[in-house]
Amino acid sequence: xxxxxxxxxxxxxxxxxxxxxxxxxxxxxxxxxxxxxxxxxxxxxxxxxxxxxxxxxxxxxxxxxxxxxxxxxxxxxxxxxxxxxxxxxxxxxxxxxxxxxxxxxxxxxxxxxxxxxxxxxxxxxxxxxxxxxxxxxxxxxxxxxxxxxxxxxxxxxxxxxxxxxxxxxxxxxxxxxxxxxxxxxxxxxxxxxxxxxxxxxxxxxxxxxxxxxxxxxxxxxxxxxxxxxxxxxxxxxxxxxxxxxxxxxxxxxxxxxxxxxxxxxxxxxxxxxxxxxxxxxxxxxxxxxxxxxxxxxxxxxxxxxxxxxxxxxxxxxxxxxxxxxxxxxxxxxxxxxxxxxxxxxxxxxxxxxxxxxxxxxxxxxxxxxxxxxxxxxxxxxxxxxxxxxxxxxxxxxxxxxxxxxxxxxxxxxxxxxxxxxxxxxxxxxxxxxxxxxxxxxxxxxxxxxxxxxxxxxxxxxxxxxxxxxxxxxxxxxxxxxxxxxxxxxxxxxxxxxxxxxxxxxxxxxxxxxxxxxxxxxxxxxxxxxxxxxxxxxxxxxxxxxxxxxxxxxxxxxxxxxxxxxxxxxxxxxxxxxxxxxxxxxxxxx
Amino acid sequence: xxxxxxxxxxxxxxxxxxxxxxxxxxxxxxxxxxxxxxxxxxxxxxxxxxxxxxxxxxxxxxxxxxxxxxxxxxxxxxxxxxxxxxxxxxxxxxxxxxxxxxxxxxxxxxxxxxxxxxxxxxxxxxxxxxxxxxxxxxxxxxxxxxxxxxxxxxxxxxxxxxxxxxxxxxxxxxxxxxxxxxxxxxxxxxxxxxxxxxxxxxxxxxxxxxxxxxxxxxxxxxxxxxxxxxxxxxxxxxxxxxxxxxxxxxxxxxxxxxxxxxxxxxxxxxxxxxxxxxxxxxxxxxxxxxxxxxxxxxxxxxxxxxxxxxxxxxxxxxxxxxxxxxxxxxxxxxxxxxxxxxxxxxxxxxxxxxxxxxxxxxxxxxxxxxxxxxxxxxxxxxxxxxxxxxxxxxxxxxxxxxxxxxxxxxxxxxxxxxxxxxxxxxxxxxx
Lengths: 589, 431
What we know:
The complex is a heterodimer of chains A (589) and B (431).
Chain A: E1 5-12, E2 15-20, E3 28-34, E4 37-47, E5 50-55, E6 67-74, E7 76-79, E8 87-88, H1 95-102, E9 121-125, E10 132-133, E11 138-144, E12 147-152, E13 161-166, E14 170-172, E15 177-182, E16 188-192, E17 195-198, E18 208-210, E19 215-216, H2 221-226, E20 229-230, E21 234-238, H3 245-255, E22 260-266, H4 270-279, E23 296-301, H5 307-325, E24 330-336, H6 338-351, H7 365-373, E25 377-380, E26 386-395, H8 405-413, E27 416-417, H9 422-426, E28 439-440, H10 448-471, H11 478-495, H12 502-505, H13 509-523, E29 525-526, H14 532-550, H15 557-572, E30 576-577, H16 579-588
Parallel strand pairs in A: 8-23, 21-26, 21-27, 22-23, 22-24, 24-26
Antiparallel strand pairs in A: 1-2, 1-6, 2-5, 3-4, 3-6, 4-5, 7-17, 9-11, 9-14, 10-13, 11-12, 13-15, 15-16, 18-25, 19-20, 25-26, 27-28, 29-30
Helix pairs in contact in A: 5-6, 7-8, 10-11, 10-13, 11-14, 13-16, 14-15
Chain B: E1 4-5, E2 8-12, E3 15-19, E4 28-33, E5 36-46, E6 49-54, E7 66-69, E8 75-77, E9 86-87, E10 104-106, H1 129-134, E11 142-147, H2 153-163, E12 168-176, H3 178-190, E13 197-203, H4 208-227, E14 231-237, H5 239-252, E15 257-259, E16 262-263, H6 266-274, E17 278-279, E18 285-293, H7 302-310, E19 313-318, E20 321-322, E21 328-329, H8 332-335, H9 343-365, H10 372-389, H11 397-411, H12 421-427
Parallel strand pairs in B: 9-13, 11-18, 11-19, 12-13, 12-14, 14-18
Antiparallel strand pairs in B: 1-7, 2-3, 3-6, 4-5, 4-7, 5-6, 8-10, 15-16, 17-18, 19-20, 19-21
């Protein structure tokens, strides 16, 4: 810590101006001394000898002349073994530790280390004395839950280093020195199992950034088959309140095919975090058979917690994600909601009296959102392995109107868009992703042609549906009516999913491919149906069988039996495969 | 260090500035004007220039009036003596009782550590079937009542205050018509609930700044009761007036407005109040029900819109009834599975049939012929509306469920209801 101090000269909300002498850097952390308590703050503007700082706490009681201590460091996260399973606030204070120190409330001015300083970890050295090393390469490993946690040469060390010494295999705390490195001039640098990294800087210790090509399974059919997300890609989920954004993210965090999930509850309800904290330790991760909590980190800065640390929380989360990516793992970061983060920027911008942009959001909103999503990526690491950070952010547009600045700025930079609609959620359709407005630039788990075929049915069905509202059922031809029934059936048996049912909620890619083929066959066929009543009852029966089929375990006996029943109904309706469907199914083989 | 200043530099609306040293942010001051004393709160410090929002408003303040800083933030007295009392936004008695100054607690305190919360899982009975049966209120839930001017939302709140199974009721009134204030007072004392109620009341004619204090005062008191192992129900009316008061002060202070003139931090301001709803891990709880009137019946207006993102569902009060369709208690599934085994199934079936009734009603209005089934639905809909939806209905959940079965039996055959037969066998009324 530097000796540099300043004095408060003005207070406006959580924005405090400080006069200082000497040097102060942008985004430097400082502490405002209010009586006995020290309030953590960050420098966000410097003008002459006045630094403007945002205080991460409530500012009541600050007065002019209060001493401010500058630390010389930027806001940083502590990286090392022991992050998994933790519940942090936006500044990486573990909430259970704060509860022990302060009780019921988040009293201000109380901070705790992100990692347990006492706990010992079993370190196995992998680097040898004399090895030439760079930042982001590892010197040893530690078992952490189901993973092998790599111990890195700190990311902030520039240039080449030679390993001078390294400890033997054994148990060490995160702050004990485990190795000594020497730089090119021979200066020795001790290295422990943990180090700090400034959260607002992207970690770039990879060899090469690759295009995201592999699909990340979310087990949500509508997403994986129609609007997929790639490992290392980005997607956003905007929707009005009550449309099920949080429920969708919650299900994704349980079933997504990734190694680690980081949940950033940013400016949302505390109740939802409580739900996750209560539920996750009880659930098992189907990939490892261990508790789901062991692959999860929760960063929660709920809506009533100070707004400046809400802004920091998304950066803290993405930094932890990048850290685990460096170990060759696939990490999913779920941010709920990025609008609250943007609003935190807006609040600060207003206090700084910056010239407002649209809806009073600051002019730099777009570049900040772009910079955040660009921290996702699929990368080749120095040891040849590959890792990814996938970012999924919810957006809460004012009035449910997607034309607002945050949604629009986000759409410019993401690779997939899952737009939730009020109509679908009001009709209790889960997930409420509207297939007519959503899009994705990534590869689907099923054949792209088949998924386009299905999407076409949905589009035509929707057109016929809106026409029917005007001319009534009587005015619709039987062939149009059948297309409409097909699109309705597709919607209810494939797009909708029961998130409470263990089998239906967890629909893997093999099953999705299999069911899609069946759907192409059923929907791509013509039937001998003479009137609308017959057609309706035929597709109703078909729908019921498909729904039953969804609840059976894949490739089980019940699965085969339900499939046979579908085939029986198909035969009863004298289904004849159309040319288009036939070609599609052939191409699949 | 009660410093006194005699020179007010500027007066704009309800905000004054004075030159003073050593003043703390959010500190309270007392101003002596020709009309009496008023409190004021520091809301900006720029060097030695201190801005204060004056609770009694700027009217009649002279540049020579005396400003005395009190050295502490806004506080409220907390003890059992609060029960049965009525205060204004400055914490002064509105009834004839004595002022309370013991055990002062700072208002607007820090938020609860999420790890000290527990999952909401207890039902809060209100004996209003549209709530208990169809959208169950859960202890520690925060729910707005979306309504329009002219709807009987205050009547609904008064009924809830009288009937709800809470240890303590805290009522916060913002911008209340004086008549409504009198109505609450009378209803609660006639109903015998006054002795477990604390009221913080700001009427429409009171100064704007006091309006902004009401939710914090009410919630601070509620929180203290909750820490004494009490289940507290906080009723606020009307949060739109609270937001408008914030808008007024923000504009006076030349803050950049974000949406329809509201300050950029509207969401955070509302959230920090609603998030006071909590079920403490081994202690009491705070449940919040807050009326939010929607200007022009527009749910996308910034106040109901931001509220909807914060709260756990909403009740729509329209045409004097709690609407069964738009209304939603997001936490109801945490509790309605363990009340009575027919609860969920009956709830679903009755809503489904009510929605068919609505369709039939539309058909009827368009002049289509009514079938026998349509006649059944029409009879059902009318019974449902008069016996269950009416606001004056006061029934326990079990009575309401029994009544539900009775209504179904009067209108339909067992198999027309779509309820599983093992339930109809057990609950269908005989004779």
